[in-house]
Amino acid sequence: MDTQKLNIACVFEGDIESGGGFQTQLSTILKLSKNDKYKITAFTFSNKNKELLIKHGLNVVCLKTSIFDKILKIFSLQIWFQILRFKWKTTFEKSLDNHSIDLVYFLSPSSLALYLVDHNYIYTVWDLCHRDMLEFPEVNYYREFELRENLYTSVSKKAVAILTDSKLGKDNLVKRYGVDSERIFNISFAPSINAKESNFINIKEKYNIESNYIYYPAQFWAHKNHVYIIDAIVKLKNKGILLAAVFSGSDKGNLEYILGYAKKLDVEHLIHYIGFAPNEEIYYLYKQSLALVMPSYFGPTNIPPLEAFVIGTPVIYSDLDGLREQVEGAALLCDLKNSSHLVEHLELLINSSEKRIELIELGYKRLEELQKYSIDQTLIKIFDDYSVKLRCWKSL
């Protein structure tokens, strides 16, 4: 271990096609790696992630889960196992020991925290949507609700600190899981590092789009509410206004339904599904669109509005608790029960360049305000406070 430096393991999970969550992890760890005050080591479980992180100059440990790990995880959640206080460790925790890790930081919600025996950790909670919007199959069916509930019940109280991205998220952690409020930190997660200008790409030409288009980068989950956009496009078409939608993101089981829905309503020619958007196209997909339209039911915050603010693209967003607070007057808000509300907003942007400019300026200002609560500044404070306590039982 480097002397005088807190040795931090940043656990980097997921894959690049998981969207905003993956990019948030990458942006965060790259920010932390620039601070020479700490030794940052990335722990991941994917060779693709390993290659990506090494490319960005990070120290990386890539691990594989063994059969012993799987058996140990089953036993470690049993009451009898906990009572007997066995000290068996997973491959992951043994690797933490081998690298003299002082503190573990989970960049995303992770079940690995459940199995740590003698390592303190910082935990990340993106959302509690299995409680907020439990109707949706992706957070309810096949015991997904129980898995999430058990995870947050167990890991949240034991965390040195919890990072969440809104006051609503903090309040719900306190109310639902009894977490001490002083251990919960509200931060603004970092926008994607891929949302940058590169060699020019004409999006309309590449994807054969003949009209203005709106952009929605979202995986195809039910809660992403693509049908709301299609309903609005139908209503615009009936008024003689042709507006296309570009959808990017991987299929999570709802793509066939969405494309079939568009075909059924005779607007499939206005829906352009481009799959997972290449990094070099992201800036131009936003920049050349009429607006980012994100009618998601899940929050309390999302990454695409922040990316739109950075690039200078108007935002149309869900009028829901948490989500409206994220954009704080810098977006047009939609009643998700009425797609005519989205139609009104789109007509306004089509007909008023002044309104588009106004929203772009408001987006810049809102982003500036959110950056006052940036994740790296908050983490530095948490790391420093932990270092003081760590000296009571371990030398740095």
Automatic annotation (TrEMBL):
Origin organism lineage: Bacteria, Pseudomonadati, Pseudomonadota, Gammaproteobacteria, Moraxellales
CDD domains the UniProt entry points to: GT4_MtfB-like (cd03809)
InterPro entries cross-referenced by the UniProt entry: Glyco_trans_1 (IPR001296)
GO molecular function, one term: glycosyltransferase activity
Entry superkingdom: Bacteria
Matching PANTHER family: BLL6006 PROTEIN, GLYCOSYLTRANSFERASE WBBK-RELATED
Protein name (Swiss-Prot/TrEMBL): Glycosyltransferase family 1 protein
Pfam families in alphabetical order: Glycos_transf_1 (PF00534)
Swiss-Prot/TrEMBL keywords: Transferase
Domain Glycosyl transferase family: 203-366
